[in-house]
Specification:
Blueprint: E1 3-8, E2 14-21, E3 25-26, H1 31-37, H2 48-53, E4 58-59, H3 72-76, E5 84-88, H4 94-97, E6 103-109, E7 116-122, E8 140-149, E9 155-161, E10 167-168, H5 172-178
Parallel strand pairs: 3-4
Antiparallel strand pairs: 1-2, 5-8, 6-7, 8-9, 9-10
Bound molecules: zinc ion.
Zinc ion (ZN) is lined by residues 101, 123, 125-126, 161, 163-164, 166.
Amino acid sequence: MGDYHTRHAGGGRIEFVCKLAVLDDWRYVRRDEAAALVSRDAGVDTNIRHALASPATLFRFPFPWEDGLSRPEDIEGRDMFATVEFVLPPELAHLVKGIEHREVWLGVRQARGSYSFNVAIPCPLSEGFVLKHSQGAPVALADIYGERYDAMKRARTIFRCGYCETPFSVSEAELEVMRRYIPKGCRDRVTARPEE
Ligand SMILES: [Zn+2]
């Protein structure tokens, strides 16, 4: 299931242009791109206005390699799972301590035979994760997931735990420190949670 941008092709015909979203994940388009498509949308399988107004919509992060308003044809070929991963240094590990991590599923292959199974373990960054006989602790991995906009159209970057993918956003003070570790090019585009 998804949302598609369609346009009037003349003679009463509706033409498919590109895919915009899967459920609430508008990770094919940035908010500015979606806004630019509104006037040209035939509205057959999509309600772009609703998505633009909803604070639940997760839009595509403005990746630096996609500068400029994209043509719908470019949107069509995008990888909706594109992300940017980075390592939080130990002094920032508390950023992922305050979130409610999910379980992580691991595939386990038996040494003999071909039988394999999946096990759920606590997220390596959660309180419930216990390491035994290990040489080191798991590094605090995070990635950039997308952007959400409030009623004032203020963007906040949504990050994710690099293991269990639980989303979170950060305050301006936290982001200030975090920016140093976010890959170059993305740093200036990340935004903090607006102060309440
Ligand atoms: Zn996690």
